[in-house]
Design brief:
Distance between the termini: 79 Å
Strand order of the largest sheet: 8-9-10-7-13-16-17
Helix content: 25-40%
Domain Trichome birefringence-like C-terminal: 139-411
Shape: globular
Number of helices: 11
Order of helices and strands: HEEHEEEEHEHEEEEEHEEEHEHEHEEHHH
CATH architecture: 3-Layer(aba) Sandwich
Main location: membrane
Strand content: 15-25%
CATH superfamily: SGNH hydrolase
CATH class: Alpha Beta
CATH topology: Rossmann fold
Structural class: alpha/beta
Pfam family, one: PC-Esterase
Keywords: Membrane, Signal-anchor, Transmembrane, Transmembrane helix
GO molecular function: O-acetyltransferase activity
Largest sheet: 7 strands, mixed
């Protein structure tokens, strides 16, 4: 009996000691735990430490990428390092041998000849196999059905030049390829206005061609760029739930490609006005309209940074691999980018800055190059000039790089927090 009592006491002491040990261990975990869940839309970040190579390109081991993908499919953004804030625009390109494209070009009959590289004879596919990974967080893969659910009953407008049309084609295809074609409405006959609608979700995605954002009167001579008057398409912008704007390329055109003869500024026609000054006035005109017309509760506004071109020397002709020199910077329209950031930082309405410039600069392989068409004929079959002289090194093949822009747009909606206006400079590389 006495022996039994001693055993019982020892058992109680052992149990109590185990309980105390577990309690201390849990306190330790609570103090040191860096795992904080970030669920979509206003939930906290989920932090896990991953040992990743910080190089800009990573064509080798894909185990980390595959593990990340399994988590990405859950629709979460996963923080890798609690010390650094998640910046989805800082990262590296990772090669995936099985391909990372979300759709096949033939699935989307509305893709323009300008971006249909495979259809126009491009023989290689590697440019479709590069996936963007952020340094400090795992970005979810684009999920068309999830995005349609998030956008249910909403209207998206994409406004800008042909590079924003490139982005519209990508987004429309990403969404169109996830639903039955009979449940979509498409109007893509015009180059200046296009619309995709997912009927079952009541989601519309529209494109308005407006390369300057302000009004260009090019029907009469002289051609006048009105710096203090928005393009008439602004009448259709109002009321949209998500707005994506860009401008930049057309401001840099010279010679026969220059779109204007005179600026209209302060009620006067002027021809001697510094380009940067004119651009800043135009950006101010756009910003004032946004501040005065956007409902902060209803609408989210994005401004996409300039899409880099790779002109000069042989340009993008014959390039089938990205630029692997991580220090490579083209400084394409750097002064205009600084004006954009300065303008956004002064606005009442918080604008999310889609800073795709740096990550796109290295993708010299992703342009249509000579695999485009002009007047219905493949450029390579014309043989009128040396191929490098007519290679398109500004736009992008689809599937391709603009799908990554839209993946980052999607990720920004998942993060669901607008960029703090005064801190925009930290997003510019």
């Amino acid at each position: 009996m006495e022996t039994s009592t001693k055993i019982t006491r020892k058992w109680i002491l052992c149990t109590f000691g185990s309980f105390i040990s577990c309690f201390i261990f849990l306190l330790y975990l609570k103090h040191n735990n860096e795992a904080v869940h970030f669920r979509t839309l206003r939930h906290a970040m989920f932090n896990v430490t991953l040992s990743l190579d910080d190089s800009f390109f990573h064509p080798g081991n894909l185990e980390t990428s595959k593990a990340a993908t399994s988590r990405e499919d859950e629709g979460n953004i996963i923080q890798k390092n609690s010390k650094n804030k998640c910046n989805i625009f800082e990262g590296r390109w990772v090669y995936e041998s099985k391909g990372s494209s979300y759709y096949e070009a033939p699935q989307c009959p509305f893709l323009s000849e300008q971006v249909s590289c495979q259809k126009n004879g491009r023989p290689d596919f590697d440019y479709e196999n590069w996936s963007w990974e952020a340094h400090d967080c795992v970005i979810p893969r684009f999920n068309g059905r999830d995005m349609l659910k998030r956008l249910r009953g909403k209207r998206v407008i994409i406004v800008g030049d042909s590079l924003n049309r490139n982005q519209w084609e990508s987004l429309a295809c990403l969404l169109y390829s996830t639903i039955p074609p009979s449940r979509a409405h498409l109007d893509f006959s015009s180059s200046s206005y296009k619309v995709f609608k997912a009927k079952d979700y009541n989601v519309t995605v529209e494109f308005y061609w407006n390369p300057f954002l302000v009004q260009l009167d090019s029907k009469n001579a002289p051609k006048i760029l009105r710096l203090e008057t928005l393009d008439l398409s602004c009448l259709h912008w109002q009321g949209a739930d998500i707005m994506v704007f860009n401008t930049g390329h057309w401001w840099l055109h010279r010679g026969k490609f220059k779109a204007w003869d005179l600026f209209e500024y302060k009620g006067q026609l002027v021809d001697e006005l510094k380009l940067e000054s004119a651009f800043e006035v135009a950006m101010g005109t756009w910003a004032n309209w946004i501040d005065q017309n956007v409902n902060l509760i209803k609408t989210t506004v994005f401004f996409r940074s300039v899409s880099p071109a790779h002109q000069g020397q042989t340009g993008c002709y014959t390039k089938t691999q990205p630029i692997t020199d991580i220090s490579h910077v083209t400084h394409f329209s750097e002064s205009l980018m600084e004006i954009v950031v300065r303008t956004l930082s002064k606005m009442r309405v918080p604008v999310r800055y889609l800073n795709i410039t740096k990550l796109s600069e290295h993708r010299i392989d992703a342009h249509p190059s000579v695999y485009g068409k002009k007047k219905g004929q493949e450029l390579m079959k014309r043989k009128l000039k040396p191929p490098e002289s007519f290679a398109d090194c500004s736009h992008w093949c689809l599937p391709g790089l603009p799908d990554t822009w839209n993946r980052l747009l999607y990720a920004s909606l998942v993060l669901d927090h607008p960029t703090d206006s005064p801190g925009l400079s930290h997003l510019v590389s």
